[in-house]
Amino acid sequence: MKLVMKVLSNTLTILLFLLLLTMVFIVISSKASGGEPQIFGNQLKTVLSGSMEPTFKTGSIIAVKPVDDPSTIKKGDVITYVQEGGTFVTHRVIEVIINGENIMFQTKGDNNEDMDSQPVLSQNVSAVYTGITIPYLGYLIDFAKSSKGTAMLLIIPGILLLGYSGLTIYQAIREIDKNSKAQTDQKTA
Prior knowledge:
- The chain has helices at 2-33, 137-145, 147-188, and strands spanning 38-39, 42-46, 61-66, 78-82, 88-99, 102-108, 120-121, 125-134.
- The protein is an alpha+beta fold.
- It has an 8-stranded antiparallel β-sheet with strand order 1-2-3-8-4-5-6-7.
- The chain is 44% helix and 26% strand.
- It is rod-shaped and about 100 Å long.
- It contains 3 helices and 8 strands.
- Helix 1 packs antiparallel against helix 3 and helix 2 crosses helix 3.
- 20% of the residues are buried.
């Protein structure tokens, strides 16, 4: 029983520590980049609408890789591009249009009936979807980017880790006291 408790205790400590490190990474990465966090050269984008469902659920995080050469994009790829007004959209390429030296992409959201009204110029494409999706994590990252979220996601795991460490220390002291009392009782007997 003690071995099981020790394994559970160590596992919980490791999980709390990893949670704290993950939250620190998410908060620092999103603050440093001024937007979405990045990991291993991929940007993490939050899905804000249902236009790509069921491929991406609203609130999911998708990993996209920045595009160096737009000519490598082909029909069926999912791209992230900048629209007029500076908003980012992630839709599927349904047609590649080559007009002389210019490349454009006709796009459509998987959940939309109609294709997008304007073809996307290759210079407006910022990234290509890598195939990695984490459902619902986008809600947490959006919350982490807020000032209250930043504070909570750094402080709460830290407090949990400190509280758990305090409890572990208290239990260890009780065990030492119990063993010490048992030895004293044996000496007096």
